[in-house]
User: Which sequence fits this backbone?
């Protein structure tokens, strides 16, 4: 009998029957016990929106950028890159497990900066991943398998809804630290520091690098410095999630400031990056996962283990999006065009925030809507309560997630007035 | 003190290491018979003409954008893929009890299927259900099921080294002795790595035992069309099992038959007893996909979908597939003839009896080492060769090398 190679021990149960669950008889199904899964809360909003026949309906659910006409926006730099790539007539051979080399390198440089000491000493590894989700999952799997510290992952309260099931499916436990202060619709700095200072050593802490999802509330640089200090004191493993570099402030270096600061302070972080939003490459699934290591030798060992994790999930990543992203990042005039377009997208969002706040004031709202302007990135935590959200969906066909989160990208100069009216109507 | 100081260096994945070693070799007559990708007679990768055509159509279509696909993938892709596997006149499809999950290649389809089975098959979260994979099998099968959480992965008898063919007695024996509800991973056609498939009569017997013993059927279909040149012929086993009433999974890959290796195009076809079961199954598949990659990449699925759903393009694709299959058949024929002409000891009928991209030559590890080190002909330690690596220009050298290996090394 041929032996099977495995990195896990295979043991034979011999003739012992496995524990039996639902028995399938000849005419029944294996799947009688499969429960109906709940619809995804975020993507479910779009489904409901599609079914609505109200001409004034607005989809403020999923975080995909829209132009001022409410249309998906394909960046010019992307179209130009695609034309360039098409002209090269490349083959379709498998990528390496870790992905396209030119992409991974450029992806790391974008996050860490061109003069990064980490990159100069080759003490990090970046692998191409299936956008941000794929990156987080690989990271979670890696920690689950190799992290010697507690397998508790501390998420900010609240965090992106998918963080929890990703880490859980990877075998980690979820905990939280205070983050959003509902009374101010701002950052609960005191609460965050208090909670973080109590986190057991070597636990994992997830930080949103910029444009926190879902609240849009980011720490200020001085606050980041204090967080970095206390995280260091507690000896925590930092897992940065950066899905909006460039998209938050319009400036890629500014948006990566926290990541770079932590590294400078000696944190060997792990980092997830997504190019879904900042390059509009949503469906192409472009992302990266980086581990900053002690030295180049450790980086090689970590790389080898990341490949062992990736191979039994999808073997190697898809070429198309990575090729586009690499072309943009590595071709000077395309890169400049990209920076302009990212700046443009961020600016439109900022303008919509200003117009929404102004519109609410004009409608005579007595509430303080400053947070709409202060919050940053694609999302705005309006402060709407669940009953108000239910009303705004039902009565105004304005679709948002139950937590009152709206995607500013879905707001345009054509509908911002209606949105202000609707929000005022359910909150007055 | 680093949190990762204790992370051990993992061994490289063998098949990719082989290609890496091949690349570094400067010998003028070197031949790569390792990794499973098609090559033309000039030993070049081949982007299918129909793929080039469809890609141009996609680039020129200004109405297309890069928005997210649904979690389960492009609907037109999913339905067309399942149809290709099950046939145009499939009753199961007509009964609305067939669904698809677009996945990242065949690997991704296997993994999503494995994750689902671990969570929902044979109880809830039952990690002890035995999973049987053929001896030998594609080396990644083991890790896919292990990483999905299965604790008991076992081999079933398959390759008979002595007779260089299927050990059908051993295979049936394992089916009879397997605990009820065990999962069996079956290669739909063009078994990797042996190239040895059961005959139709043998498949019928396998189905009979599996039905009687309540074993779960998980087909791995990575070479439909590529094996015999006919899509329908290569899907015979799958369709037979479906017609016998099995609820089953089929992990489909379009890497080889569309030459779309790096776009990661695959589909997990689910055949359920009825549409109500299917709905619940797909809802749980969504949850699994959402924490793995959220939604699949669009480019490859668009190419395959456009091709499968347009009659002219579909016909063109079938012709491209036949081109590849025919070249492989020609190389098999010629290799066997040359070895016979050289008087190489042993029988070489298995080279033309085996089917698909791979051939289990029967060379032992020492002979393989000789082939690589002395002759610069790269093949897997198992003796597996990729027929696509053979060309009219190198086939004489390869035949000669095999001859030397067999006569000089025991």
Assistant:
């Amino acid at each position: 009998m041929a032996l099977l190679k495995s990195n896990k021990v295979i043991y034979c149960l011999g003739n012992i029957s496995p524990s039996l669950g639902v028995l399938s008889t000849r005419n029944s199904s294996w799947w009688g016990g499969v429960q109906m899964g709940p619809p995804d809360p975020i993507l479910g909003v779009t489904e409901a929106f599609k079914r609505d026949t109200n001409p004034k309906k607005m989809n403020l659910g999923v975080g995909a950028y829209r132009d001022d006409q409410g249309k998906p926006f394909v960046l010019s730099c992307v179209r130009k890159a695609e034309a360039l790539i098409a002209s090269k007539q490349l083959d379709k051979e498998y990528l390496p497990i870790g992905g396209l080399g030119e992409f991974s390198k450029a992806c790391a440089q974008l996050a860490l900066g061109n003069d990064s000491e980490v990159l100069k000493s080759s003490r990090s590894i970046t692998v191409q991943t299936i956008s941000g989700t794929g990156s987080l999952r690989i990271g979670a799997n890696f920690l689950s398998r190799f992290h010697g510290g507690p397998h508790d992952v501390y998420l900010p309260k609240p965090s992106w809804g998918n963080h929890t099931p990703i880490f859980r499916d990877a075998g980690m436990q979820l905990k939280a630290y205070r983050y959003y202060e509902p009374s101010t619709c701002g950052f609960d700095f005191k609460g965050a520091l208090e909670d973080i200072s109590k986190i057991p050593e070597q636990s994992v802490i997830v930080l949103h690098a910029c444009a926190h999802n879902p609240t849009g509330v980011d720490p200020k640089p001085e606050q980041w410095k204090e967080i970095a200090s206390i995280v260091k004191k507690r000896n925590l493993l930092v897992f940065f999630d950066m899905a909006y570099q460039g998209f938050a402030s319009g400036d890629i270096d500014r948006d990566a400031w926290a990541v770079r600061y932590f590294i400078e302070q000696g944190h060997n972080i792990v980092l997830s990056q997504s190019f879904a939003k900042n390059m509009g490459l949503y469906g192409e699934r472009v992302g990266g996962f980086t581990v900053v290591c002690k030295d180049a030798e450790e980086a090689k060992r970590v790389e080898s283990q990341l490949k062992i994790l990736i191979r039994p999930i999808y073997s190697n990543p898809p070429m198309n999006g990575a090729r586009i992203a690499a072309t943009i990042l590595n071709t000077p005039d395309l890169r400049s065009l990209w920076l302009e377009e990212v700046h443009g997208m961020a600016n439109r969002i900022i303008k919509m925030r200003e117009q929404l706040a102004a519109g609410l004031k004009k409608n005579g709202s007595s509430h303080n809507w400053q947070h709409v302007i202060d919050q940053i990135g694609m999302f705005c935590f309006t402060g709407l309560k669940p009953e108000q959200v239910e009303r705004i969906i039902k009565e105004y066909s304005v679709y948002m997630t139950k937590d009152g989160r709206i995607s500013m990208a879905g707001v345009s100069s054509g509908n911002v007035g209606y949105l202000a009216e609707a929000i005022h109507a359910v909150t007055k | 003190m680093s949190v990762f100081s204790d992370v051990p260096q993992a061994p490289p994945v063998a098949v990719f290491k082989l290609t890496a070693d091949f690349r570094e070799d400067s010998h003028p007559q070197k031949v790569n018979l390792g990794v499973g990708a098609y090559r033309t007679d000039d030993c070049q990768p081949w982007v299918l003409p129909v793929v080039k055509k469809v890609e141009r159509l996609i680039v020129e279509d200004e109405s297309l954008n890069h928005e997210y696909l649904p979690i389960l993938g492009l609907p037109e892709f999913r339905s067309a893929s399942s149809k290709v596997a099950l046939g145009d006149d499939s009753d199961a499809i007509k009964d609305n009890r067939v669904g698809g999950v677009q996945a990242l290649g065949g690997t991704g389809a296997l993994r999503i299927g494995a994750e689902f089975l671990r969570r929902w098959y044979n109880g809830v979260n039952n990690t002890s259900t035995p999973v049987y994979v053929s001896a030998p099998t594609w080396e990644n099968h083991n890790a896919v099921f292990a990483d999905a959480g299965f604790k008991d992965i076992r081999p079933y008898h398959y390759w008979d080294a002595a007779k260089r063919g299927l050990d059908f007695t051993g295979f049936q024996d394992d089916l009879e002795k397997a605990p009820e509800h065990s999962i069996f991973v079956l290669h739909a056609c063009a078994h990797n790595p042996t190239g040895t498939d059961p005959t139709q009569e043998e498949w019928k017997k396998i189905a009979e035992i599996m039905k009687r013993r309540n074993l779960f059927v998980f087909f791995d279909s990575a070479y439909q069309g590529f094996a015999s040149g006919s899509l329908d012929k290569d899907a015979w086993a799958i369709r037979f099992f479906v017609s016998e009433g099995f609820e089953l999974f089929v992990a489909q890959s379009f890497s080889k038959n569309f030459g779309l290796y790096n776009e990661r195009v695959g589909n997990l076809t689910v055949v359920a007893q009825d549409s109500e079961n299917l709905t619940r199954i797909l809802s749980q598949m969504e949850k699994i996909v959402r924490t793995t990659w959220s939604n699949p990449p669009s480019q490859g699925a668009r190419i395959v979908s456009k091709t499968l759903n347009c009659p002219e393009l579909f016909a063109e694709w079938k012709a491209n597939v036949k081109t590849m299959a025919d070249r492989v058949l020609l190389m098999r024929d010629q290799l066997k003839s040359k070895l016979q002409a050289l008087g190489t000891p042993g029988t070489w009928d298995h080279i033309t009896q085996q089917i698909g991209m791979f051939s289990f030559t029967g060379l032992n590890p020492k002979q393989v080492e000789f082939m690589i080190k002395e002759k610069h002909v790269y093949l897997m330690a198992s003796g597996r060769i990729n027929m696509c690596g053979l060309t009219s220009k190198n086939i004489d050298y390869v035949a000669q090398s095999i001859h030397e290996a067999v006569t000089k090394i025991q």
